[in-house]
Write a structure and sequence with these properties.
Blueprint (H helix, E strand, L loop, with lengths): L1 H19 L3 E5 L2 H5 L4 E5 L9 E2 L9 E6 L2 E6 L5 E3 L5 E5 L2 E7 L4 E11 L2 E11 L7 E2 L2 H7 L4 H10 L8 E2 L4 E2 H7 L4
Antiparallel strand pairs: 1-2, 1-6, 3-4, 4-5, 6-7, 7-8, 8-9, 9-10, 10-11, 12-13
C-alpha cells in the first residue's frame, strides 16, 4: 500500500510540474541559435494571458522590421538580420526576404507554410501556400515540382520518384502513414 501511495504521489508531482511548466517565446538571432533552441529577448508565455511581445508588422504588407517588447523596453529588429522567432503556441517562423514562413517540418528538407491574401471575386481570401528549403538557412522556394527538380537535380532517383508519384500539381500532401510530408518520405528513400 505504501509503494502504491508513493507511486501515486510521484505521478502527481510530475503532472504538477508539467502543468506549471511555461513555454517560451523569443527571437532566434541566427541559424545556430535556432538549431540550439537559444532564444534572445525571451519571454515566458502565461496561460492566463498570452504574452504577445513580438509584433511582425504584416498587416497589409511585409515591413522590413519587427518590434519586440522585452523587460519594459522596445526593440526594433530587421527581419533580414535575424533567423526568426518562436511564439507562445510553440510555432516557429523563419524570415526570408522580409517575409515570415511557418516551419511545419524539418526532416530531410524544410517545409514551410505562409498564409497569403489572394483576390477572390470582389474580395480577398486567405490561402495557405507551401514552400521548401534544402536546410535551415538555404533559399526558400515555392513547393512545386519544377523547383524540387532544379534544387535536387543531382539526385536522379528522387526526380524519377517525383515523376512517378506526382501526376498533378498538388505535392503538399501529408503522409499520415509515415508521419511526414510525402515529398520528404520520397526524398528519404533516395539518400540512404
Amino acid at each position: 500500500m505504501k509503494k502504491k501511495f508513493s507511486l501515486l504521489l510521484c505521478c502527481f508531482a510530475i503532472a504538477t510540474v508539467e502543468i506549471n511548466a511555461k513555454s517560451l517565446s523569443g527571437i532566434y538571432m541566427n541559424t545556430s541559435d535556432y538549431k540550439n533552441n537559444k532564444l534572445a529577448y525571451q519571454s515566458t508565455c502565461n496561460s492566463e494571458k498570452h504574452n504577445h511581445s513580438i509584433y511582425v508588422n504584416n498587416l497589409f504588407w511585409d515591413m522590413p522590421k519587427i518590434i519586440v517588447h522585452n523587460e519594459g523596453k522596445k526593440y526594433y529588429l530587421l527581419k533580414d538580420s535575424i533567423f526568426g522567432y518562436k511564439d507562445c503556441d510553440n510555432n516557429v517562423f523563419r524570415f526570408y526576404k522580409n517575409q515570415e514562413y511557418k516551419i511545419v517540418e524539418t526532416s530531410n528538407m524544410y517545409i514551410y507554410t505562409r498564409d497569403v491574401n489572394t483576390t477572390h471575386g470582389k474580395g480577398f481570401k486567405i490561402v495557405t501556400q507551401y514552400y521548401f528549403s534544402k536546410n535551415a538557412d538555404s533559399e526558400i522556394l515555392p513547393l512545386v515540382l519544377e523547383n524540387l527538380k532544379d534544387v535536387y537535380k543531382n539526385n536522379i532517383a528522387f526526380i524519377d520518384l517525383l515523376d512517378m508519384v506526382f501526376t498533378n500539381p498538388t505535392i503538399n500532401i501529408y503522409d499520415n502513414t509515415h508521419n511526414t510530408f510525402k515529398i520528404n518520405y520520397l526524398y528519404s528513400k533516395t539518400i540512404k
